[in-house]
Amino acid sequence: MRTNEYGQPIGAAVEQALPAPTPGRVTLVGTHCRLEPLDPAAHAAGLFAAFAAAPDGRDWTYMPVGPFASEEDYRAWAEAAALAQDPLQFTVVSTATEEPLGTLALLRQDPKNAVVEVGFVAFSRGMQRSAVSTEAHFLLMQYVFDALGYRRYEWKCDALNEPSKRAAERLGFTFEGTFRQATVYKGRSRDTSWFSILDTEWPVLRAEFVRWLAPENFDEGRVQRTPLRTRS
Which stretches of the chain score pLDDT less than 50? Predict the structure, then answer.
């Protein structure tokens, strides 16, 4: 255990230069999808159509916004969201169809400590439980850890949102606990579940994402041959 001159236990030394870079409006290209900075002119109509294909509004229950009654309503939200640095919104575009299928964002950006959160994850039914969904997350993780050099990548969600918690664990996040009555949204109280990935965990996770996303892991129907194994 590391101690100071008084014999008190202290944390590990941080050798990297801080602050880390601030996330930017970059395009991240993968095999199944690419992430582009949210552009309402290019993306709003397609995104609203993708979201409107759902039979009801349940995908928005645990989101701070939505559901949206019309394309105009969604476009108004997107125009405001696209101007913000934090949250920094990205659109997920399918490389197979060139259609926008969802959005996600980097928020609570803390370059001083090299910490950032992924959130505002709004994936349409057309990309849920698909290689596009997994690769979208992988591309953003890869950008945060490999390009920006961040030390910690966070995921937070309503503690009642079981699908989000399962998704976090599948993607390799470690559950850290629940903050009780942490926020208020849509007129209701939220207990928040916290998850994270650390830079020391990333190399093993990156290798597993690369293995899972490889073409040979999918059959002719684009169904996975083996599952993503991020848990030891």
Answer: none
